[in-house]
């Protein structure tokens, strides 16, 4: 096999790893934006509340008539699969490197409560990645194998580990460093 073909195959393997790591880094960015929003921005729930409506609002949400918040990258906001805030003045909705992001309510939660949040990311197609990823207000990143392309999280579990989610190590240096 020619050396060029081997390099392309190696790069393709690397891009798959980089894809999920980039998605996990985007979830970490969302977590940081939520912390900032809760500590510094007076939103609909008042100070001390997380932004719960969607992911796009962390970019396109308004703060006291001062314009969009811009707490997350525009590409992440555009990848919100269920935006409630109008993202169209800033971007066309599309997945970010094949992934969509979704704000979730928790199991048993009647409506979004201001003292917690959960966001998941999932690939558009299982060929991109068979895992769904979840981060909560606690800053813990989880992943769970999806059974098909329509298997997308609708609610955040109260205890992710008890329903098949695995904890992902923050440093992202090795996929083998997963706690069960």
Description:
The chain has 180 residues and is an alpha+beta fold. It has one domain. It has helices at residues 3-40, 57-60, 74-78, and strands at 99-106, 118-123, 131-136, 141-145, 155-156, 166-168, 178-179. It has a seven-stranded mixed sheet, with helices on one face. Strand 2 (118-123) and strand 3 form a beta hairpin. The longest helix has 38 residues, at 3-40. It is globular and about 45 Å long. Mean pLDDT is 83; it is low at 1-17 and 172-180.
Would you tell me the overall average pLDDT? 83
Please, what is the oligomeric state?
A: single chain
Biggest β-sheet, characterized? 7 strands, mixed
Number of domains: 1
Which stretches of 5+ consecutive residues score pLDDT under 50? 1-17, 172-180
- DSSP strand count: 7
Q: Level of helix content?
A: 25-40%
Q: Identify the overall geometry.
A: globular
- Helix/strand order, N-terminal first: HHHEEEEEEE
Tally of alpha and pi helices: 3
Q: How does the helix and strand content classify structurally?
A: alpha+beta
Rounded to an integer in angstroms, the radius of gyration calculated over CA atoms is 17 Å
Strand order in the sheet with the most strands: 5-1-2-3-4-6-7
Distance between the termini: 40 Å
């Amino acid at each position: 096999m020619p050396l060029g073909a081997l390099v392309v195959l190696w790069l393709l393997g690397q891009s798959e790893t980089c894809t999920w790591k980039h998605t996990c880094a985007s979830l970490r960015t969302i977590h940081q934006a939520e912390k900032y929003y809760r500590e510094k921005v007076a939103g609909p729930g008042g100070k001390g509340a997380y932004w719960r409506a969607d992911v796009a609002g962390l970019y396109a949400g308004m703060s006291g008539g001062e314009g969009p918040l811009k707490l997350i990258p525009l590409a992440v906001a555009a990848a919100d699969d269920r935006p409630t805030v109008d993202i169209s003045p800033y971007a066309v909705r599309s997945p970010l490197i094949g992934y969509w992001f979704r704000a979730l309510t928790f199991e048993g939660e009647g409506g979004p409560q201001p003292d917690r949040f959960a966001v998941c990311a999932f690939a558009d197609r299982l060929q991109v990645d068979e895992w769904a990823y979840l981060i909560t207000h606690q800053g813990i990143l989880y992943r769970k194998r999806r059974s098909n392309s329509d298997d997308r999280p609708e609610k955040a579990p109260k205890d992710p580990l008890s329903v098949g989610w695995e904890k992902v190590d923050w440093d992202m240096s090795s996929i083998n460093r997963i706690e069960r």
